[in-house]
């Protein structure tokens, strides 16, 4: 499934990679998705593999998901909050 990132999304991902937090944009995006999956399933007591299987099952179910502007704003705010809490500082030289 090809995705088109906005310029702002690309800038934010590249900033995280440039800061040395991740070695590649793919690694940064995988970490971001892991955070989103965790936030989307509060109180989930299973393993990461179980969560991944459940997410894939939902995606493959064919049931539509209607995301409105409020959803995307809340998601952006929450991921920004989580990222700020786990900000990686550049190592000093």
Task: Give a verbal description of the structure.
The protein has 93 residues and is mostly helical. 62% of the residues lie in helices and 0% in strands. The protein is built from 4 helices and no strands. The N and C termini lie far apart (40 Å). The model has no long low-confidence stretch (mean pLDDT 76).
Give the secondary structure arrangement, pairings included.
Layout: H1 7-18, H2 25-40, H3 48-60, H4 69-85
Helix pairs in contact: 2-4
Overall mean confidence score, pLDDT = 76
Q: Termini, distance in Å?
A: 40 Å
Which structural class matches the secondary elements?
A: mainly alpha
Topology, number of strands: 0
Helix-residue proportion: 55-70%
- Poorly predicted runs: none
**Shape assignment:** globular
Order of SSEs: HHHH
The fraction of residues in strands falls at under 5%
The gyration radius over C-alpha positions equals 15 Å
Q: What is the makeup of the main sheet?
A: none
Number of helices: 4
């Amino acid at each position: 499934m090809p995705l088109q990132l906005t310029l702002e999304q690309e800038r934010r991902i590249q900033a995280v990679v440039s800061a040395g937090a991740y070695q590649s944009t793919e690694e940064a995006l995988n970490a971001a998705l892991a955070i989103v999956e965790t936030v989307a399933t509060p109180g989930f007591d299973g393993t990461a593999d179980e969560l991944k299987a459940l997410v894939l099952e939902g995606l493959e179910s064919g049931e539509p998901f209607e995301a409105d502007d409020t959803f995307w704003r809340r998601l952006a705010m929450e991921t920004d909050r989580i990222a700020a809490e786990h900000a990686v500082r550049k190592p000093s030289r």
